[in-house]
Amino acid sequence: MRVFWGAVVCAALLAGGCGGEPREEATPDVVERADVSGEVTGTDIVEEVAIEVMAEVIPEVLPEVIEAAPPYSMVTFNAGLAYNYVTYAKERKAAVIGSVANLDADFVCMQEVWEAADVEDLKAGALAAFPYSHYADTTAEPGETDPACTTDETDPLLACYYEFCDGTDDLTGCIMDNCVAEFTAVTKPCSNCLVANIAKPIEGIVAACLAGSAAFTYDGLNGVLLLSRHPFESTDFKVLESFIVRRVVLHGRVVADSGPVNVFCTHLSTEISEIEYDGKSDDWDDEQGDQITEIVKYAEKQAGEEPSVIIGDMNCGPDVEPNIVGKNQENFQLYLDAGYTLPYLAQEQVDCSWCIDNPLTGSGVDRLIDHILVKNLGDYEAQFVVERILDELVTVPHSETGDDVETPLSDHYGVHAWLP
Q1: Which of 20, 158, 233, 367 has the most CB atoms at less than 10 Å from its CB?
Q2: What pLDDT shows up at residue 14?
Q3: How far apart are CA 127 and CA 164, in angstroms?
Q4: Given this model, what pLDDT does residue 200 score?
Q5: Are 97 and 178 in contact (CB under 8 A)?
Q6: Parallel, antiparallel, or unpaired: how do β-strands 29-33 and 132-137 relate?
Q7: Which residues pair with 374 in a beta bridge?
Q8: How confident is the model at residue 373 (pLDDT cuts 50, 70, 90)?
Q9: How would residue 31 be classed by pLDDT, with cut points 50, 70 and 90?
């Protein structure tokens, strides 16, 4: 049996080898730049990616041996830093960074850290706990495009916005509650462009769509970030086929004294009710299933028979008695058919991660859609302890009024899996 978990990361990652050839010194922070014009597998690494604070904190010569706190543990957390889409995104940001920095984990897979500035702030804020990170810059290259909207379409929408939604921090919800007639009256290219630019102020959204169009939200950024306490022996990523929202899977390989572990971090597609699906798959659910198939094949290619973990917001999951309602269960089954197991299901208590009691969701059902799936871990697969975390309320100042606001950290709760 391959021994998987160990107490010390091999010094070969940093200086020499474990009886083999020397390796290049591991870098504390890796950002990869995608050529999104074709198939992407993350080999174009941007130079000088460590942010300034990292250079100040991390010594030029790392210790030959890094002591890892056994056993390895993993967290998935969708931070919901989606401005104009998830309520109190601005207000929650500092609390999110602080909570992540205090996690007792070896790997954290984060989703919905959409803005490049937020990625940098989070890496800097969590640097002491997680000095290594992996992020893929998938910014879409701007191009010459025809305007997606006309003023005949946007003027009624703007008038409705200023009447009902001026100053709101939930632009999408307010528009859908008060201006749905004006929104649905626009053409499909216009509505797609409006949604793709949702993070901008309303004037910026309209200006962008009167001037051109956008293929992806957040200018093509994917919002996925992998944090690690341990240096990566190698990193890679793959851009997944998706419509309107860029989707990727990140891969980080870490070698401990007892062997390697391959961590895959992702965030899969889900239905966006505000716009009609116009991608290459049959519909939103089919696109998600196609992405899982891509990820499983990619993980097999990258990890082979080595221990493998797939972490993230899958937007699908099983029924769990007594109250968790499954979502796209046939898609989730694709992971199980590929040999992955979900240790959470073996626990005495299984909690939702997308929940009715979370006021940021507006959900009418409890779902478990944030997962840590494992493969090729042998007997360890039955030994994991798994629990829901990051489900507390926090009090933060409102960005406009300064008044205290009580809110969950995110619309998703986190999930933590570790070996006792």
Answers
A1: 367
A2: 34
A3: 42
A4: 87
A5: no
A6: parallel
A7: 309, 341
A8: very high
A9: low
Q: Are 43 and 6 in contact (CB under 8 A)?
A: no
Enclosing H/E stretch for 189? helix 188-196
pLDDT > 80? residue 16: no
Query: Rounded to whole angstroms, how far apart are CA atoms 281 and 288?
Result: 9
The H or E element that residue 132 is part of is: strand 132-137
Query: Cα separation of 384 and 415, whole Å?
Result: 12
Q: Grade residue 287 by pLDDT with cuts at 50, 70 and 90.
A: very high
The residue behind tokens 């200006």 is 207
CA distance 136 to 116: 11
Name the DSSP class of 220: G
pTM: predicted TM-score of the whole model, two decimal places? 0.82
Whole-number pLDDT of residue 274: 77
Average pLDDT over residues 74-99: 96
CB 136 within 8 A of CB 250: yes
| 403: three-class secondary structure by DSSP | coil
How high is the pLDDT of residue 67?
A: 42
The CA-CA-CA angle for residues 373, 139, 390, to 5°, reads: 40
> In the 8-state DSSP scheme, what is residue 348?
S
Distance CA(157)–CA(39), nearest Å, equals 38
Whether 250 contacts 299, CB under 8 Å: no
Would you give the end-to-end CA distance of the chain in angstroms?
Answer: 19
Total count of residues recorded for the chain: 420
Sequence-distant (6+) residues with CB within 8 A of 83 are 89, 90, 114, 115, 198, 199
Contact 206, 159 (CB under 8 A): no
- pLDDT at residue 192, rounded to an integer: 87
In order of 95, 107, 353, 377, the CA distances from 100 in angstroms are: 9, 11, 17, 26
| Cα–Cα distance, 234 to 55 (Å, whole number) | 20
Residue % of the chain over a pLDDT of 70: 82
What does the alpha-carbon distance between residue 281 and residue 5 come to, in Å, rounded to a whole number?
Answer: 39
- Closest among 197, 202, 170, 198 to 87, alpha carbons compared: 170
Q: Is residue 416 within 8 Å of 105, Cβ to Cβ?
A: yes
CA–CA separation, 229 and 71 (whole Å): 12
- Asked whether the beta carbons of 133 and 225 are under 8 A apart, the reply is yes
